[in-house]
Amino acid sequence: MRIPRLPPGARGFTLIEILVVLVIIAVMTTVAVLSIGVLGGDRELGDEGDRYTDVVAAASEQAELEGRDYGIWLGAARYQVLAFAADKQVWVSIPDDRLYEEHELPGGLSFELEVEGRPVALGLEKPGDLRVPQLYLFASGDAAPYHLAIAREATDTKWRVEGRADGTLAVTLPGTQP
Prior knowledge:
Blueprint: H1 15-39, H2 43-66, E1 70-74, E2 78-85, E3 90-93, E4 103-104, E5 109-115, E6 118-120, E7 135-137, E8 146-152, E9 158-163, E10 169-172
Antiparallel strand pairs: 1-2, 1-7, 2-3, 2-4, 5-6, 5-8, 8-9, 9-10
């Protein structure tokens, strides 16, 4: 059996040339995967949104069961569930409950709050100030209506929740219209 020979002047690719092409393809693939991850679904934003709605649903249910009002205090990038102490006429933190303790959003995320069609400035409190919630969950099962967005800084990506007067929540995921 004879091995065919290449015609004179014809030449194949060298190993170095093939490796350079493979490296270029790998770099382009990596860039494409990373850009899809950054511009596509924002898992961190979704996780924080899910956590917020879970906390609000649990607090609303607990308010009804205990027959006392609960509230949600919001900072620029953190929140905490408070309970109304009727005997002292003051809002207090709930001891020994990790679900309701102060929770800080990861870096790059922040809250935008609108109550009765008006934006609410968040994060203006001073150290030592008593916390008063901006959102109320009443013992009757009702709630003060509001619109809250968890926003990714430097992008238009927002996870939105609408708190309705009947205590229900409506969620609008990033990339969809309310």
